[in-house]
Amino acid sequence: MNPLPQTAPRTTVTEAEIAAFDRDGFHIHPEPLFDAHEVAAIRDACDRVAARRYATGVEPDCRAWEPGAPPTAVVKIDNAWKSDPTVLAAVTDARVARVAARLIGADGMRLWHDQYLRKPASGGGIVTWHQDWMFWQAIDRPRTVTSWIALDDVTVDQGPMLFIAGSHHGGLRLDLMPRDWTGGALPASPVAGDIVPVVVRAGQVTFHHANLLHGSSVNASGRDRVSIVSHLMAADCCYRPGHGHVCIERMLAQRDAPAPRERFRGPQFPWAWREQAG
After folding, report:
1. pLDDT at position 183
2. Residue 220: which CATH number?
3. Average pLDDT, stretch 192-218?
4. Whole-structure pTM value
5. Considering only Cβ atoms within 10 Å of each terminal Cβ, which end of the chain, N or C, has fewer?
6. b/e per residue 47-80 (b: at least 16 CB within 10 A)
7. Is residue 207's pLDDT more than 80?
8. Could you tell me if residue 1 is inside a domain?
9. Cα 213–215–92 angle (5° rounding)?
């Protein structure tokens, strides 16, 4: 049962918005998909997971931050959905998944993995230019959509995500694989294209293509920048062996794991939306 109360924002996308996604590689949904009550509940749940208070008793799959870390350290926790039902409800929310599915023409979306991200005030290093699919080569096709849910208002001085519009048309660019995520300043854009800062309200969701180049600068403001990210993959995505990822390690440990070239299935990748479910 979804513990979040359901609001009724627009969960459709227009033909013009789909065309813009195809052209630019991203869609910033114009109205919040989560209301203030939901945002507060999700943020509280993420804070509990960060503090190692797990409602389910299950650890997240990966933690890159621990309580007591320096105050300028970025919080990054993967698959917090396993640890808290409110996080699970957020990252598999049908309102989000339905928009993602429409943008790429999919009849269903599964969760690949989530990420809780908190870029602290007056800190939080850069995230250099990258494509998500660079790190997800165990997925056989780039039919994934990263859905970034803002858990507070994002301003231009908070180190917001920066999209390089249209950069997904260049396909997978493993030659641009980051060697160093750190540094005081974001490098110059590696490709042509307008750089679009993701300045949104709490509860808004942005969607971007697996091959869109994006990054972010340091948070120069006095407020944390907080989000929960739902990385969603189309139902027709299949397992490609030979590529490591924590999700693949967990998948291979489960009963009835998909064989090579079979569609992803099983408890590691919960459904977020299916056509027949409405």
Report:
1. 63
2. 2.60.120.620
3. 97
4. 0.94
5. N
6. ebbbeeeeeeeeebbbbebeeeeeeebbbbbbbb
7. yes
8. no
9. 80
In angstroms, the CA 115 to CA 253 distance is 21
Cα first-last separation, the chain: 17
Domain presence at residue 9: no
Pairing label, strands 108-119, 271-274? antiparallel
User: Is 3 domain-assigned?
Assistant: no
Distance from C-alpha of 4 to C-alpha of 7, rounded to nearest angstrom: 9
Q: How many domains does the chain have?
A: 1
Which pLDDT tens digit goes with each residue over 67-79?
Answer: 999 988 999 999 9
- By the 10 Å C-beta count (0-12 exposed, 13-18 middle, 19+ buried), 29 is classed as buried
Nearest to 208 by CA among 90, 100, 94, 95: 100
Token pair 């390089």 is at which residue?
164
What letter does residue 6 receive in the DSSP assignment? P
Distance, C-alpha 123 to centroid of its chain: 21
User: For residues 92 and 271, is the Cβ–Cβ distance under 8 A?
Assistant: yes
* pLDDT, tens digit, 9 for 90 and up, residues 73-108: 999 999 999 999 999 999 999 999 999 999 999 999
Q: Is-contact 55 230, C-beta < 8 A? A: no
Count of helices and strands (H, E) across the chain = 5, 12
For residue 144, being part of any structural domain is answered with: yes
**Of 141, 131, 187, 121, residue with least CA distance to 163:** 131
pLDDT higher than 60, residue 177: yes
The range of the structural domain enclosing residue 193 comes to: 15-273
